[in-house]
């Protein structure tokens, strides 16, 4: 493939740029804190529900402040985190009730 002409300084889909100026290819400013929501969902999947809940709330605050655009992922992390926490509490109460009933019957 032959090299591009030196006259063409832009990229596909971008306007031509003056010599010496290159487009910023980093993350958009509105996606700076999207990692919080992704980490919240990942922590919920790994059953680290306190971490999932904390990161979910931090991510929702970033969404409210306009620093992130991952509202659905943040809410998913919160749902997973609180769901796992509720399931753990119910399982603990069921085991404790079973232990109390078997101890009282003996």
From TrEMBL:
It comes from the Bacteria. Keywords: Membrane, Transmembrane, Transmembrane helix. The chain crosses the membrane at residues 35-58, 79-101. The keyword Membrane applies. This is DUF4190 domain-containing protein.
């Amino acid at each position: 493939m032959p090299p591009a002409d030196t006259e063409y300084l832009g990229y596909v889909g971008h306007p031509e740029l003056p010599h010496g100026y290159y487009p910023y290819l980093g993350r958009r400013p509105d996606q700076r804190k999207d990692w919080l929501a992704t980490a919240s969902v990942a922590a919920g999947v790994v059953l680290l529900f306190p971490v999932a809940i904390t990161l979910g709330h931090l991510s929702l605050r970033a969404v409210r402040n306009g620093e992130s655009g991952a509202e659905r992922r943040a809410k998913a992390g919160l749902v997973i985190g609180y769901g796992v926490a509720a399931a753990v509490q119910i399982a603990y109460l069921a085991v404790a009730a079973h232990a109390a009933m078997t101890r009282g019957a003996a």
